[in-house]
Design brief:
About 10% of the residues lie in helices and about 35% in strands. It has about 230 residues and is mainly beta. The longest helix is centred in the N-terminal third of the chain and has 12 residues. The chain is globular. InterPro entries: Rot1 (IPR019623). It is found in: Endoplasmic reticulum membrane.
């Protein structure tokens, strides 16, 4: 009995098992693949972002997606809306794309270090500069991560931020990572100046689509019927 207990203690303390908790019972499948939240409309890869000209292909609803390779590369796609308690009409929309390298640390945390070519688009109809694109390359630290088996939706990935707060659960949509090339795709520098797309407070002219101008009312209608699904 004592021998069995000592063996169990050794296995729990083993660095090979501790690294990212890959072999733990709550990680039932590989992290490798593509994961997406909510309605799964946001998915990494060429269907979401074109870093060559810093544009986006806009999904019908908001959400988050991550892809991971087996050799340490990741890609992240995000489409979010942020409310304004002072003025409900001033909803801010944000699109973010980054990719780079990730590390599963011995303390079960995960570190994501992006390349220098990430970018985001921000739309705020109540701001002086209502629609612009800027460089975005913030690193991320997740305190821990877990993969569970959901009886209805299959494998489910939970990420916990540096302070332990949970991120919206992500569901496995592909066992193969759906990603753009795993290398820097632009030669961006920290001196990159945000590109202004629209400088106006006219809500009717705010645009989120690459093919033309649409009214903010359409965006708000989308939000009302489910754009907050994450």
């Amino acid at each position: 009995m004592l021998f069995t207990s000592l063996v169990s203690l050794f296995l729990l303390a083993s660095p090979a098992l501790a690294q990212g908790d890959i072999s733990a019972a709550h990680n039932l499948t590989s992290l490798v693949g593509t994961w997406s939240s909510g309605s799964r409309n946001v998915v990494t890869g060429p269907g979401f972002a074109n870093p060559n000209n810093r544009t986006f292909i806009y999904p019908p609803t908001a959400g988050v997606s991550y892809s991971f390779t087996g050799d340490g590369f990741f890609e992240s796609a995000r489409y979010r809306f942020n409310g304004n308690a002072t003025d409900p009409h001033c909803i801010t929309g944000v699109m973010v794309w980054i990719h780079g390298e990730y590390t599963l640390n011995d303390n079960s945390s995960m570190t994501l270090m992006p390349f220098s070519d990430g970018y985001q688009q921000v739309q705020d109809p109540c701001a002086a500069e209502s629609n612009f694109i800027e460089q975005y390359n913030s690193s991320e630290l997740y305190q821990s991560w877990r993969i569970f088996q959901d009886l209805q939706d299959g494998y489910k990935l939970h990420l916990f931020q540096f302070d332990g707060s949970p991120v919206a659960p992500l569901f496995l949509v592909s066992e193969e990572p759906n990603m753009l090339p795993t290398r820097p795709l632009r030669n961006d520098t920290p001196s990159f100046v945000a590109q202004s797309l629209i400088k106006t407070n006219d809500a009717a002219s705010a645009s989120w689509t690459p093919g033309g101008i649409v009214s903010l009312a359409s965006t708000l209608l989308t939000v009302a019927v489910g754009a907050f699904v994450l």
